[in-house]
TrEMBL record:
Domain HTH lysR-type: 1-58
Key words of the record: DNA-binding, Transcription, Transcription regulation
GO molecular function (one): DNA binding
UniProt similarity note: Belongs to the LysR transcriptional regulatory family.
Region forming the signal peptide: none
Protein name: DNA-binding transcriptional LysR family regulator
Length: 303
């Protein structure tokens, strides 16, 4: 049984006239009649009652027509789905992300992507940058929101956001009323930092800026998440240096203060496997570049 036979049968069933059906199908009547006869032989049933002046469906033909309609509809849906998947409009994309990405750029980019590609299934998995690199090697994720530096020949990076850091202190802290402070002002403070293995470049930059200011910080506590940092600062256990976007947490009992001079900086990049030619990955990267107004020199790596 061939697909074209089902299409021929449907047209004849709609017209109940072989001549008109042949015209619709842009073919002559004899080969059309032959195809219907061949279909009936394969099925072992008569689909039409024929006379010189009249054609009608048999009971078997009526039942068969209903099922054929369903088949053709499903086939058309399958063709459409395949085309949309090829165009990057359908499918599944797994995103890894560091927790701090949720403070600003992740919601912006994901919302823009889903508005343009609402039928793509986005699966989000929170994990620190080192775990994302492992996940890329295992092919567990397709896209990653990572903190630099990332040096891995498997991966390509698209820088999408840079920001300076600010200090965060308890609301009861003597410096809480100040609009700005210097790194040197923090030399007697107890620091709460995200563990170095979670975010090594940021950790090292904070320590470097402290040394530049003439002191080595007293690190009271190391944690895994910025949210935890803010919670411990709110509890009065110490102060911290955090990305400026952290203010979006709106935590009570803490105050964010600008840092004078050269403050630590952080960068967010989107990572993907260099050998991944997926249309979905390309569409996501293009959406991110457009949404974050990435300079053209950075987007050259997408071409």
């Amino acid at each position: 049984m061939e697909l074209r036979q089902l299409e021929y049968f449907t047209v004849v069933a709609e017209e109940l006239h072989f001549g008109r059906a042949a015209i619709r199908l842009q073919m002559t009547q004899p080969p059309l009649s032959q195809q219907i006869i061949q279909l009936e032989r394969e099925l072992g049933v008569e689909l039409f009652k024929r006379s010189k002046r009249h054609v009608e469906l048999t009971n078997a033909g009526k039942v068969f027509l209903q099922d054929v309609h369903h088949i053709l509809i499903q086939l058309e849906r399958a063709k459409t789905a395949a085309l949309r998947a090829h165009m990057g409009m359908l499918g599944r994309l797994v995103l890894g992300f560091v927790g701090s990405a949720t403070f600003d750029i992740l919601p912006i980019i994901v919302r823009a992507f889903q508005e343009q590609f609402p039928h793509v299934d986005l699966v989000l998995r929170e994990m620190p940058t080192p775990m994302q690199i492992e996940a890329f090697h295992k092919r567990d994720i397709d896209i990653g929101f990572v903190r630099t530096p990332v040096v891995d020949p498997l991966l390509s990076l698209l820088p999408v956001h840079q920001e300076t850091c600010i200090a965060v202190v308890p609301k009861s802290h003597p410096m809480a009323e100040r609009s700005s402070l210097s790194m040197g002002d923090l030399y007697t403070e107890r620091f709460i930092l995200v563990e170095r293995e979670i975010w090594p470049s940021w950790y090292d930059d904070i320590l470097s800026k402290c040394r530049d200011a003439g002191f080595s910080p007293h690190i009271r506590q190391e944690v895994k998440e910025i949210q935890t940092v803010i919670g411990l600062v709110a509890a009065g256990l110490g102060i911290s240096i955090v990305p400026k976007s952290t203010v979006n947490l709106h935590a009570r009992d803490v105050v964010y203060i600008e840092i004078e001079g050269t403050a630590p900086r952080v960068e967010m990049c989107i990572a993907w496997r260099t050998d991944d030619n997926s249309t979905l990955v390309k569409q996501f990267l293009e959406t991110a570049s457009r949404t974050m107004n990435v300079p053209s020199k950075e987007t050259d790596i997408l071409s």
